[in-house]
Design a protein that fits this description.
Length: 148
């Protein structure tokens, strides 16, 4: 009997991406330095990047990070996002059972394609998620050519 298996390249690529991320996170720990400030970096927030026909849309998980503690910069084609999550203060008589949430400074940077309009980037911070919209230049958007 022949068994049909549905082919899903998107699911296969997602699984492979997770495997690579897991592999590299074991070899390269999330601590390091922020190249702009040379400060120690404690953690890296998870980021989703989606390309639409009009823009690149980013969603960055930053729960517990105040809006005023986040800096976003664009310089020479590089988008940099940094900030800090402050650790909870415990009293001497508190009994700490477990601390799992990463705290301290974070830093992420991305090289932007030449086809973006960096003057129209917008960011919003809501419910622990920083969302950004990086619009494409009008001339770089695909357009349909009519045949005569």
């Amino acid at each position: 009997m022949t068994k049909l298996v549905s082919f899903s390249p998107r699911a296969d690529l997602s699984r492979m991406q997770r495997d690579f991320d897991s592999l590299f996170s074991n070899f390269f720990p999330t601590s390091g330095t922020d190249s702009e400030t040379s400060e120690a970096v404690s953690w890296h927030p998870k980021i989703d990047v989606v390309e639409t026909k009009d823009a690149f849309e980013l969603a960055i998980d930053v729960p517990g990070v105040e809006k005023d503690a986040i800096q976003i910069n664009v310089h020479e084609g590089v988008l940099s996002i940094s900030g800090e999550r402050i650790a909870r203060q415990v009293q001497d008589d508190d009994n700490v059972i477990r601390f799992e949430r990463q705290t301290g400074r974070f830093y992420r940077s991305f090289t932007l394609p030449n086809k973006i309009d960096d003057k129209k980037i917008v960011a919003q911070h809501e419910n622990g998620v920083l969302t950004m919209r990086v619009p494409k230049l009008e001339e770089s958007k695909p357009r349909k050519i009519m045949i005569k």
